[in-house]
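User: structure tokens for this one?
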Amino acid sequence: MNKLRIDIGRVIIDGSSHPDGGDTAFFQGDRATLLRTPAVPGAFEAIARLTTLFKGQAWLVSKAGPRVQQRTLQWLEHHDFYGRTGIPADHVRFCLRRADKAVHCAELGITHFIDDKPDVHEALAGIVAHRYLFDRRHHLPAGVSRTPTWPTAETAITQSFEPLPHFPLAEVESYL
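Assistant:
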């Protein structure tokens, strides 16, 4: 069964586009400032379609300390992330080190992985079959596809699924 894992910061939450001054506004601003942080363009729509494609087998796994975890959960709730994407609230996990994302991926049996950090992808070599770097700037690790936008990520992930076998109608009818 295919299972999807998505990072949160710079993949879903676009702190760098914050109207009050970039990433630091998400981390240091008050609650109202935090909630004004926009989503990455197209994220909610693409994630909703991918969640359907993966039959609900989609998780968020992010590196964050307790304060950022709380702020992230507030942002997700405020923006109705769960309702808009179909990912259940209990499919959100956090870890304290980027490399620990590999533990979550192995435990969940993740097959497809989207993250913006090359070092995370390198830690997942041999654990996750389909890895997608959501970034234009960093080096591209071996075995990873560069998908810097949600349209490119969604297309690459969708194309990674094995096509269903095609049976000619006459052959199907012979079994009926």
